[in-house]
Write a structure and sequence with these properties.
With about 230 residues, this protein is of the alpha+beta class. It contains four helices and 14 strands.
Length: about 230
């Protein structure tokens, strides 16, 4: 009987555990508009909509737990847990109530493996502006409107990386996609200009600007910024 309870307990633990793993070393600083992930050397622009996760209000971004509903959405959209990791997920603040899940495809030393394992863009449309481009599609699921964007992060042939942004909006709050599209195109523009997190130093954050072969290092206190290659 004791063995039965042990096995049952293990079953509950494994069944509750998410198949999707979070990318390590991700965070957001309250008051900043960027989520930063040191492991993948990137930032994601989230605007003024998010802060650190607040246990009381259940709002903000976190990198620990993925709800069963969010797992179902990710799986429904076609993401393979062995080929993608989750950067963050969370609920927005204020009146612009929506949830956001972000993922990125795994890196590989094997050339073209990234390309083969990317989520298919069949059925996606292209949003293109002077600032950049990304792929998107919209759908509805369980009285929720989903805006699914795939933003090119690195375009090295055979080693492509895409940041996925999945915006989930309750139908009762849905008006249009204007605000969501602004957030998505801001990330497309940032990656197009090669804004990449360079380095995080305790209390000092480094903005490195390379222009005409000259490297200028500017130390900014208590502000997270990115490396800009012009």
């Amino acid at each position: 009987m004791k063995a039965f309870y042990i096995l049952f307990g293990l079953f509950l633990l494994t069944s509750c555990r998410s198949a999707y793993q979070f990318t390590p070393k991700g965070f957001i600083v309250d008051g900043d508009e960027y989520f930063v992930n040191v492991e993948r050397n990137l930032s994601v622009y989230v605007g003024e909509n998010f802060s650190n996760y607040d246990e009381k209000t259940k709002t903000g971004l976190q990198t620990v737990h993925l709800s069963h509903d969010d797992q179902k959405i990710i799986k429904k959209l076609g993401y393979d847990a062995t080929k993608y990791t989750v950067l963050f997920n969370g609920k927005s603040l204020g009146d612009t109530t929506f949830r956001l899940i972000s993922l990125i495809n795994n890196k590989s030393d094997e050339r073209f493996k990234n390309t083969k394992e990317l989520l298919s863009r069949d059925g996606f449309e292209i949003k293109r502006t002077a600032e950049g481009k990304y792929y998107y599609r919209t759908t509805t699921l369980n009285k929720q409107v989903i805006y699914h964007a795939m933003v090119p992060f690195k375009q090295q042939l055979g080693r492509e990386e895409y940041v996925s942004l999945i915006y989930i909006i309750p139908e009762k709050y849905f008006k249009n996609f204007d605000h969501i599209e602004d957030l998505a195109i801001s990330n497309a523009s940032m990656y197009r200009q090669h804004y990449i997190l360079r380095q995080v130093v305790p209390k000092f954050y480094v903005l490195m600007i390379a222009a005409g072969g000259i490297l200028i290092t500017v130390f900014l206190i208590n502000i997270y910024k990115r490396k800009i290659i012009l």
